[in-house]
Automatic annotation (TrEMBL), chain A:
Membership in a protein family: Belongs to the glycosyl hydrolase 2 family.
Protein name according to UniProt: beta-galactosidase
Glycosyl hydrolases family 2 sugar binding domain: residues covered: 43-226
Keywords: Glycosidase, Hydrolase
Domain named Glycoside hydrolase family 2 immunoglobulin-like beta-sandwich: residues: 228-330
Major enzyme class: hydrolase
GO annotation (BP), single: lactose catabolic process
EC number: 3.2.1.23
Organism listed in the record: Lactobacillus gallinarum DSM 10532 = JCM 2011
GO annotations of cellular component type: beta-galactosidase complex
Catalysed reactions listed for this entry: Hydrolysis of terminal non-reducing beta-D-galactose residues in beta-D-galactosides
Pfam families (UniProt xref): Glyco_hydro_2, Glyco_hydro_2_C, Glyco_hydro_2_N
Domain Glycoside hydrolase family 2 catalytic: 336-623
Automatic annotation (TrEMBL), chain B:
Pfam families named in the record: Bgal_small_N
Keywords annotated in UniProt: Glycosidase, Hydrolase
Signal peptide: none
Name of protein: beta-galactosidase
Catalytic class of the enzyme: hydrolase
Length: 626, 318
C-alpha cells in the first residue's frame, strides 16, 4: 500500500495497518528479567533521532523515508520530546477556540451538509511537519523474531516507513500505536522514518484546553515476539457472596506457535498459591470461574493486589515467555437509590483532574514526575484521578493500581470548539455528533482505551471524553463499553447539553462547576448518582468555599464528590534575559495568538510541582471522608 | 509634682505632634495626615504615613467574575488618600483646634502626659464618598493602640478589603506570627493549623499572574524582623523587631514587599520591582477568594464585605 497524504483530510481514515489495540501487559524471557524489570524482548528507540522541520506539508522532504535520501542536512532531536519545546515551532496555548482561529477558515468535514474539503489539512499552511529518522541495528536478542514497533504517543497524525517501505498510519495521539515491521526488518542498518503532522481531521477531536504541541512525545519501542506470544490478556476478577469471595476469569489470546503449554498461577502477597493451572496452548486459553474464598479486597486504603503469573512453555517444557500481572478484586455498583458503592460501601471521590505536565518537557513527562504526583496525592488525601482529557502514559495506571488511586479513565476526545461559541451552545458544526463519517473514529478511541487498560483494577469509570456535546456517536462509545465491560461505570458530562441522550450515555449524572446550591437542587430528586467531574477551579489564588461542596457529601448519599480542576499549572520554564532568572511562562507569552493566557494555570500545584497554599485546605477537606 | 509621674514627653510642634519616651519617638504629621515616624530603640519603622487600604490585587477569580470592574473606584481610594480632619486629645484635654502656632506659643519643652489620642479622618475618593477614621491611642509606656473605623454608606461599590497599610523603609528579613498556618482567607482557612510560625524573608506566592496573596487570618501576634535601615549613620545591621498584638480580637495581615498596586501592575512575578521595602497590611475585613469557577461565579455571599455597614478593628503596636 502507498501512503496517501489525503488521509489527513478524511475523518474515516484514522488507522492504516495499525495492529489492534491490546492489553498493556509486560512480557519477559524468564524470571531473572522480571526481577530486573528489563525484558530482552524489548529494545528502546528513545534517544537522539535525525530530524527535519517543515513549516507546512508543501515544503516537507517527501522522499525522506527512502534509503537513497541524503539526510546529512537533518538536525537531531531527542525522542521523546515536543517539537515546539525544541524551538522549531511556536508554543501556543488556547482553550476552546481552535489554534487556527482567524488564520484559516475551517469547518469539520461532513458538517453543514458539506463533505470532505480536499487539502484542508494536507495542504494546511499551519500544518507543520516533523520528519524523523532513526538508524538502528536490532539488538542480538531480538534477531530472528517477528518485530513490532510501538509508539506510545505521537501528536497528531503519523506515517511510518521502514527501509523505504510504507508501514502504516495512525492518529489518536494518546494511545499506543503498534505496527508489524517483520516483513522489512533487517538485523543491521535499519532506517525508520516517521512523518508527523501537527494537524489532521483528528485535530477537531483533540481540542483539549492545553498547550498545543506536536511530535513523538512518548516512548518508542521495538518488541520482539517469542515463538508463542501472549498478544492480549483479558482478566475479569469479580466479587461475589456479599463481598467475601472472588471469581477469576481470564482469556489469553496467543499468536505464533500453539504447541506447548501455558501455566497460570495466582499468588497472594504472602506467596500463597490460589490458582495453579497447566493448560495446553491454543490461540485462546480460558480460565473460567475460578473461585477464591475470602479474597482480600482492593481499595484506596488497602490496595491489595494479587500476582498473576503466566508461563508459556514450548512442547519441550522450556519457558519461552513469562507474563506477570497484578490485579485486585473490587466491585463497583449503583444501588437502586442511585448511590455508588465500592465493595459494598459508599464510594466518595476526593479527586483531581490531572493533565500530564512538566514545566520543562511539556506533556512528555517522566516516571519521576508520575511518582512525585502519586506521593502528592497520598500526602493530601487525594484518592481519585480523572485522566483529563486523554489516556495517560502506561506506567501511571500501574502506579494507580499499586497506590489505590481510583481512576476515571478518559478517552482522547474534546471538541468544545465545535459547539461552544462565545459561551453559548451552538452545535451546528459539532463533531462527532451523530455524523456517520465521524462514528468509527471515536468508537476506535473508546476501543483503544478499553483494550489497552482493561486489566487495571484502579479504573472504576470509563469516561467517554470531555466537552464534546452529545449525539449518537458518543452513545456508540458508551455502548462499546457496556458491551465489553460490566465491571465498571461509564461517565460523560457533555450529555448535560443534549439531555435526550441521557438514557444512552453515562451511568453518572456528571456536572462541571455546578455551584453547591444547584448541586443540592439536583440531589433532592436525583435520577443518577451525581459527580462533579470538574469543580473548585484552582486558577491563581482560589479554592475558597470548598466546604460548601464537602457538606453535600454528608447530606446526600447520591453525591459522590468530585474532581478538582486541576492538579498542576500548565506553564513553561523560560530563561528571562531581563531578570536573568528561569521563570514560568503561560499562554500568550510566546507571541502566540489567539491565546487564553493565564487560563492555562489552574493547578493545586505550581508548574514546578510545589504545592499552592490551597493544598492544605484540600488535604483537610479530603481527609474528612477518607 | 504632678508631671514627674507622667512619662510621655509631648512636643507641640509647629507642624507635628511629637510623643517621646524612654525608647521611642513618635511624630504625627498634620500635613501628611498621619503617623509620620514610629521610631523605637532608635530604629525608624515608617517610610510614609500609614493609610487606609481598600484594594487588593485582582485575583483570577475576581477578574473572571468582573468583581474588579464593580469595585474599581476603591482602587483610586486606595492609592490616593484625602485627610479631612485631625483631632487631638492629651490626657483628658480635648483640643478644639490643633495646637499649631500661635496656639502652641504657650507651651514649653517640658510638657508631659500619661496618654494621648490623635485621630485622622479620611474621606474616600468614591461616589458616594464615605469616611474612615484611624485613631492612635498612646498609653503611658508608649504602646499604641490603632483603631480604624469605616463608616458604611448606602450605594457604595463592593469592597475588596478594609485595612491599614504600613510601609516600612527596608525589607524585613522575616516575620514570626501566632495564628494560622499558610496563606488563609475567610473561605479558605478550615485546613489551617493553629500555631507559631516563622517566615523567612517576604515571600510572594508565585501565582502565574501576581495577585492578592499572603493573607494570614486570625492572628494573635506578629513580630516583624529587620536588619537594615536607611539611616546613614546606622551601620549596625543587627536584628531589630516590631511587635503587633491583637487588641480585643485577633487580626488579619499580609506582609509583602509590594503594595496591591505594584502587584496589580505585573503580569508575571519577575516583573515585580526589586524588593526594597516591607508592606504590612492589617486587615479588619477580608473578602473571600472564591473557587466555584473563574469566569463568573462570585465569592459566596457570606464572605463578601458589605460596604454599607460600619466596620471597626484595632491592634496594638508594641
Amino acid at each position: 500500500m502507498k501512503a496517501n497524504i489525503k488521509w489527513l483530510d478524511d475523518p474515516e481514515v484514522f488507522r492504516i495497518n495499525q495492529l489492534p489495540a491490546h492489553s498493556d501487559h509486560p512480557f519477559y524471557k524468564d524470571y531473572r528479567e522480571w526481577q530486573n524489570h528489563s525484558s530482552s524482548f524489548k529494545q528502546s528507540l528513545n534517544g537522539a533521532w535525525q530530524f527535519h522541520f517543515s513549516k507546512d506539508p508543501q515544503s516537507r522532504p517527501i522522499d525522506f523515508y527512502k534509503r537513497s535520501f541524503d539526510s546529512s542536512s537533518f538536525d537531531t532531536i531527542p525522542v521523546p520530546s515536543e517539537i515546539e519545546l525544541n524551538g522549531y515551532a511556536q508554543n501556543q496555548y488556547t482553550n476552546i477556540l481552535y489554534p487556527w482561529e482567524s488564520k484559516i477558515y475551517r469547518k469539520p468535514a461532513y458538517t453543514l451538509g458539506r463533505g470532505i474539503k480536499n487539502g484542508d489539512f494536507s495542504q494546511g499552511k499551519d500544518n507543520t511537519v516533523g520528519s524523523y529518522l532513526k538508524h538502528f541495528d536490532l539488538n542480538p536478542a531480538l534477531a530472528g523474531h517477528d518485530i513490532h514497533i510501538q509508539f506510545e504517543g505521537v501528536e497528531r497524525a503519523m506515517y511510518v516507513y521502514l527501509n523505504g517501505h510504507f508501514i502504516g498510519y495512525a492518529e489518536d495521539s494518546f494511545t499506543p500505536s503498534e505496527f508489524d515491521l517483520t516483513p522489512y526488518i533487517q538485523a543491521k542498518d535499519n532506517i525508520l522514518a516517521v512523518e508527523v503532522f501537527k494537524h489532521s481531521t483528528a485535530s477537531w477531536l483533540e481540542d483539549q484546553d492545553m498547550f498545543r504541541f506536536s511530535g513523538i512525545f512518548r516512548s518508542v519501542e521495538l518488541l520482539a515476539l517469542p515463538r508463542t506470544h501472549l498478544m492480549d490478556l483479558d482478566i475479569k476478577p469479580t466479587v461475589v457472596n456479599d463481598y467475601h469471595d472472588g471469581v477469576f476469569n481470564a482469556k489469553l489470546h496467543f499468536m505464533g506457535k500453539t504447541s506447548g503449554n501455558v501455566h497460570v498461577l495466582v499468588e497472594d502477597i504472602d506467596g500463597k498459591t490460589l490458582l495453579n493451572k497447566k493448560l495446553p496452548l491454543k490461540s485462546t486459553v480460558e480460565i473460567e470461574n475460578e473461585t477464591f474464598a475470602n479474597v482480600h479486597l482492593w481499595d484506596n486504603h488497602d490496595p491489595y493486589l494479587y500476582q498473576l503469573i503466566i508461563e508459556v512453555h514450548d512442547q519441550d517444557g522450556k519457558l519461552v515467555e513469562l507474563i506477570p500481572y497484578q490485579f485486585g478484586f473490587r466491585k463497583i455498583e449503583i444501588t437502586k437509590d442511585h448511590v455508588v458503592l465500592l465493595n459494598g460501601k459508599r464510594l466518595i471521590i476526593n479527586g483531581v483532574n490531572r493533565h500530564e505536565w512538566d514545566a520543562k518537557r511539556g506533556r512528555s513527562i517522566t516516571l519521576a514526575d508520575m511518582k512525585q504526583d502519586i506521593a502528592t496525592f497520598k500526602h493530601n488525601n487525594i484518592n481519585a484521578v480523572r485522566t483529563c482529557h486523554y489516556p495517560n502514559q502506561i506506567p501511571w495506571y500501574y502506579l494507580c493500581d499499586q497506590n489505590g488511586i481510583y481512576m476515571m479513565a478518559e478517552n482522547n476526545l474534546e471538541s468544545h470548539g465545535t459547539w461552544q461559541k462565545l459561551g453559548q451552545v451552538e452545535a451546528t458544526s459539532n463533531v462527532p455528533g451523530s455524523i456517520p463519517e465521524w462514528r468509527e473514529v471515536v468508537v476506535d478511541r473508546a476501543r483503544s482505551n478499553y483494550e489497552t487498560f482493561k486489566n487495571h483494577t484502579a479504573i472504576l469509570f470509563w469516561s467517554l471524553g470531555n466537552e464534546s456535546y452529545a449525539g449518537s456517536n458518543i452513545a456508540a462509545m458508551n455502548k462499546f463499553y457496556k458491551d465489553h465491560d460490566s465491571s465498571r461505570l461509564t461517565h460523560y458530562e457533555g450529555v448535560f447539553h443534549a439531555p435526550e441522550f441521557k438514557k444512552e450515555i453515562s451511568d453518572l449524572e456528571s456536572c462541571m462547576y455546578l455551584p453547591p446550591k444547584e448541586a443540592e437542587e439536583y440531589l433532592q430528586n436525583p435520577k443518577k448518582p451525581l459527580v462533579e467531574c470538574e469543580y473548585m477551579h484552582d486558577m491563581g489564588n482560589s479554592d475558597g468555599g470548598m466546604g460548601s461542596y464537602i457538606k453535600l457529601i454528608d447530606k446526600y448519599p447520591q453525591y459522590m464528590g468530585g474532581f478538582i480542576w486541576d492538579f498542576i499549572d500548565q506553564a513553561l520554564f523560560v530563561h528571562d534575559p531581563v531578570s536573568g532568572q528561569d521563570v514560568l511562562r503561560y499562554g500568550g507569552d510566546f507571541d502566540d495568538r489567539h491565546s487564553d493566557y493565564e487560563f492555562s494555570g489552574d493547578g493545586l500545584m505550581f508548574a514546578d510541582r510545589t504545592p499552592k497554599p490551597a493544598m492544605q485546605e484540600v488535604r483537610y477537606y479530603y481527609g474528612l471522608h477518607k | 509634682m504632678d508631671y514627674t509621674n507622667k512619662k510621655l514627653h509631648i512636643i507641640y510642634g509647629d507642624g507635628t505632634f511629637g510623643v517621646n519616651g524612654q525608647d521611642f519617638q513618635y511624630i504625627f504629621s498634620y500635613e501628611r495626615g498621619g503617623l509620620e515616624s514610629l521610631k523605637v530603640h532608635g530604629k525608624e519603622w515608617l517610610y510614609r504615613v500609614p493609610t487606609p487600604t481598600f484594594w487588593r490585587a485582582t485575583t483570577d477569580n475576581d477578574r473572571g467574575s468582573g468583581f474588579n470592574l464593580k469595585a474599581a473606584q476603591w482602587l483610586g481610594a486606595d492609592i490616593f488618600t484625602k485627610c479631612t480632619d485631625i483631632h487631638l486629645k492629651v490626657d483628658e484635654h480635648d483640643f478644639p483646634e490643633l495646637p499649631i502656632a500661635p496656639f502652641n506659643n504657650k507651651f514649653s519643652n517640658h510638657e508631659y502626659a500619661s496618654s494621648a489620642q490623635i485621630s485622622f479622618t479620611y474621606q474616600t475618593l468614591t461616589i458616594p464618598a464615605t469616611n474612615a477614621k484611624i485613631i492612635y491611642n498612646i498609653d503611658d509606656v508608649g504602646h499604641i493602640k490603632v483603631t480604624m473605623h469605616y463608616y458604611g454608606k448606602k450605594g457604595l461599590s463592593p469592597l475588596p478589603v478594609i485595612g491599614i497599610r504600613l510601609i516600612m523603609p527596608t525589607a524585613a528579613t522575616g516575620f514570626d506570627y501566632e495564628g494560622l498556618s499558610g496563606e488563609t482567607y475567610p473561605d479558605r482557612m478550615a485546613g489551617a493549623k493553629e500555631g507559631r510560625f516563622h517566615i523567612d524573608g517576604l515571600p510572594v506566592t508565585k501565582y502565574l499572574v501576581p495577585q492578592e496573596n499572603g493573607m494570614h487570618m486570625q492572628t494573635k501576634k506578629l513580630v516583624i524582623n529587620r536588619e537594615a535601615t536607611q539611616n546613614n549613620s546606622d551601620q549596625t545591621n543587627e536584628k531589630f523587631s516590631l511587635s503587633i498584638l491583637q487588641d480585643k480580637k485577633p487580626f488579619n495581615f499580609s506582609c509583602l514587599p509590594y503594595t496591591a498596586e505594584e502587584l496589580e501592575n505585573a503580569t508575571h512575578i519577575e516583573e515585580l520591582p526589586l524588593v526594597r521595602r516591607t508592606v504590612l497590611v492589617i486587615a479588619g475585613a477580608v473578602r473571600g477568594i472564591g473557587g466555584i469557577d473563574s469566569w463568573g461565579s462570585d465569592v459566596e455571599s457570606a464572605y463578601h464585605i458589605n460596604p454599607e455597614l460600619d466596620h471597626e478593628f484595632s491592634f496594638i503596636l508594641n
